[in-house]
Amino acid sequence: MVKEIERAGIPVVHVATVVPISMTVGANRIVPAVAIPYPLGQPDLGEAEEKQLRKDIVEKALIALQTDIDEQTVFSDDEK
User: Fold this and answer.
1) What's the superkingdom here (predicted)?
2) In whole angstroms, what is the distance from residue 80 CA to residue 47 CA?
3) Which of 30, 33, 43, 48 is the Cys-Cys partner for 39 at CB 3.0 to 4.6 Å?
């Protein structure tokens, strides 16, 4: 599905809990998530910290959408 959407000219970002699976299925822009049961959250954090974590992941995904790439790219914490 991702490849078809991108073929139509619409960039797609996988927010992925298991990055190697996203790589295998051919996702081009990959943003690592937190964990399988809570991809965009971490219940052991306080409310403010979890909100910031979610904001950071979404901002990273938005940056990934705007980034021109030539190959599969993982947008890790190092790249923000």
Assistant:
1) Bacteria
2) 22
3) 33
